[in-house]
Design a protein that fits this description.
Rossmann fold, 3 domains, 8-stranded mixed beta sheet, 6-stranded mixed beta sheet, 10 helices, 20 strands, 25% helix, 25% strand, globular
Length: 399
């Protein structure tokens, strides 16, 4: 069920040791009101303003203490937070659950566009994983091996020699001893899961809405079908939707009637958005061959993937500039390469472009300048890497 009420008050009504897993995504101590509009321009919001850090800490400790009481001995809690108060919350969790029951500090890593600011781009949030006891439920998840792993060698058993060095284990006959099966690489505490796409079907316009893919991982590793999952700050109901999709019971609490109504609506028709990036992997988006990438690297160009006419953009003093470059293929004429490049940039308003001539070098002399059908568009053709590097200053976009 979904309850409209204060999480502390409602948890005090619950029996001790009755909940299998708690996930909470509480206010982060941002000291501002969080608002966002959905596709129909309806505004969803919640208040995250406090008298001070001590008021916030007191608020959180009361609720975390109740979470500890109602968790089963096999239960765990996952507390979602970020840079604003994570250090305070970690201390409170140690006090309430005991430092010995700390299991992991999960880093949720993602990529988002952000306004320029002084300092590093914020691209992760923290999820603290604590168990109630050492008897907690845990279902291992395994990932595939990295590209650098010698897969042909992972089946060979290893041992440490007299010097503590890892060596292959061999039989009395000198043959390598093999492991019967390998499950993969155990899930680490750094999770790279894309932030919820603004156009994702599951997005409902609630501020701080988390992706179902993130909650699925938590529910899968720390609970079993039939367990009861509690979210005392359920917001738009993502935790509850995941619990329903994975065959768990669910209980959500929120002080906002709007949030409760939104959660109930999502539960009637759960929508899960897949991540193409996670399904295919980052390498699936790279279609440049190694030769092209090597040439781009020599001239410090930023590679472009999935574009038939543009291979990259030049960099000057470490900054990418709007000057596209194409490298002539071995099987194409210089005229064909010019047409591919011109066609690709026709609608983008670039004023200058570079074509690196790799063959048929007698067809066009060095530094030939040609004007395409696009007004104010200049195409520079070079046949050496050094010529491109020497003339980068000429190619800077005229503002």
């Amino acid at each position: 069920m979904v309850i409209n009420g204060d999480g502390l008050t409602e948890m005090k009504k619950m029996d001790s040791e009755s909940i299998g897993l708690v996930y909470l995504d509480p206010p982060f101590f941002t000291q501002c009101r969080q608002t966002l509009k959905d596709k129909n321009l309806n505004e969803h919001s919640f208040d995250d303003q406090w008298a001070g850090i001590e008021a916030y800490k007191s608020f959180m400790k009361e609720r975390l203490s109740e979470c500890q009481r109602i968790l089963k001995k096999t239960g765990s809690i996952f507390l979602h937070c970020d840079r604003y108060a994570s250090h305070h919350l970690r201390i409170i969790l140690d006090e309430v659950f005991g430092a010995r029951n700390f299991q992991s500090e999960i880093i949720w890593s993602y990529r988002r566009w952000s306004n320029a600011k002084k300092g590093l781009l914020n691209a992760h949030q923290v999820i603290f994983f604590y168990s109630k006891t050492d008897k907690f439920t845990f279902n291992p998840i395994y990932n595939g091996y990295s590209e650098a792993t010698n897969i042909d060698q992972i089946f060979q058993k290893r041992k440490r020699d007299a010097n503590g060095k890892t060596v292959y284990r061999t039989s009395e006959l000198g043959n390598y001893e093999l492991i019967e099966e390998k499950k993969g690489v155990p899930l680490s505490d750094v999770w790279e899961i894309p932030y919820l796409n603004p156009k994702a079907r599951e997005r409902v316009g609630y501020p701080t809405q988390k992706p179902i893919l993130l909650l699925e991982r938590i529910v899968e590793i720390a609970s079993n079908p039939g367990d009861t999952i509690l979210d005392p700050f359920c917001g738009s109901g993502t935790t509850l939707v995941v619990a329903k999709l994975l065959g768990r019971k669910y209980l959500g609490i929120d002080t906002s009637p709007d949030a409760v109504a939104l959660s109930e609506k999502r539960l009637e028709n759960p929508i899960r958005s897949d991540s193409t990036l996670l399904k295919k992997g980052r390498l699936a988006y790279s279609n440049q061959n190694t030769e092209i990438l090597s040439l781009l690297n020599q001239i410090e160009a930023e590679p472009v993937q999935r574009n038939r006419g543009i291979d990259g953009f030049l960099k000057v003093n470490g900054k990418m500039i709007p000057v596209p470059i194409r490298i002539q293929r071995k099987d194409e004429t210089i005229e064909s390469a010019k047409q591919q490049l011109s066609k690709a940039i026709q609608k983008n308003g670039f004023k200058r472009a570079v074509l690196y001539q790799t063959n048929d070098k007698t067809e066009m002399p060095l530094f030939t300048l040609s004007i395409s059908n696009t007004p104010n568009y200049q195409l520079y053709v070079y046949n050496t890497i050094d010529a491109i590097i020497r003339n980068k200053s000429v190619l800077i976009y005229e503002r």
